[in-house]
């Protein structure tokens, strides 16, 4: 019990294994500053953070700037927040997969994600409209031919592509 309340011990443990956060004392778990510090050390610890923190925009902006993938554990409303998703994909382009369906159709977000991680399989997470966008597909295929597998049927048959 004493170790569960020792901030330094718990932070080191969280750094090694995110799931450690679920075993900390109620006092530490109730301290937003502590939880923020733990999540900064290991973004995946966010899944064990209190619900109100997963819905706190400022908190999530801070978290996704360090670990874009952590958006997976954000509230649904923040997965639909363009500012939060943009920061996440700037840090890790693959974070686009956790965005709301509406934001997966945002061309600017897709381009930002591609700047970070390249086109590769990124189109897998894009909306059907963007998979049918010739300009997007041309850019993606120029960089990585594998992107063609995610194109719309119509564009797969397009000679320009």
Structure description:
Helices cover 53% and strands 0% of the residues. The chain has 161 residues and is mainly α. The chain has one domain. The mean pLDDT is 90.
Mind sketching the topology for me?
Layout lengths: L6 H10 L9 H4 L2 H10 L9 H4 L2 H10 L9 H4 L2 H10 L9 H4 L2 H11 L10 H4 L2 H10 L9 H4 L5
Structure at a glance:
This protein is mainly alpha-helical. It has helices at 7-16, 26-29, 32-41, 51-54, 57-66, 76-79, 82-91, 101-104, 107-117, 128-131, 134-143, 153-156. It has one domain.
Jot down its keywords.
161 residues, mainly alpha, 53% helix, elongated
Average residue pLDDT: 90
Largest sheet: none
Can you count the helices? 12
The structural class is: mainly alpha
Helical coverage, percent range: 40-55%
Q: Work out the count of structural domains.
A: 1
Low-confidence parts: none
């Amino acid at each position: 019990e004493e170790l569960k309340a020792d901030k330094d011990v718990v932070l080191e443990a969280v750094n090694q294994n995110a799931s450690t956060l679920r075993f900390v004392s109620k006092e530490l778990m109730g301290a937003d500053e502590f939880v923020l510090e733990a999540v900064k050390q290991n973004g995946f610890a966010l899944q064990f953070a209190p619900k109100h923190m997963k819905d706190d925009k400022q908190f999530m902006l801070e978290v996704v700037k360090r670990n874009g993938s952590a958006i997976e554990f954000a509230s649904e409303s923040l997965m639909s927040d363009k500012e939060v998703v943009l920061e996440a994909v700037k840090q890790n382009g693959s974070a686009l997969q956790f965005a709301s369906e509406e934001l997966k159709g945002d061309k600017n977000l897709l381009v930002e994600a591609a700047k970070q991680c390249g086109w590769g399989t990124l189109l897998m997470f894009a909306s059907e409209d963007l998979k049918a966008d010739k300009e997007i597909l041309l850019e993606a295929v120029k960089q990585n031919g594998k992107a063609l597998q995610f194109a719309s049927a119509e564009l797969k048959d397009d000679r320009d592509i």
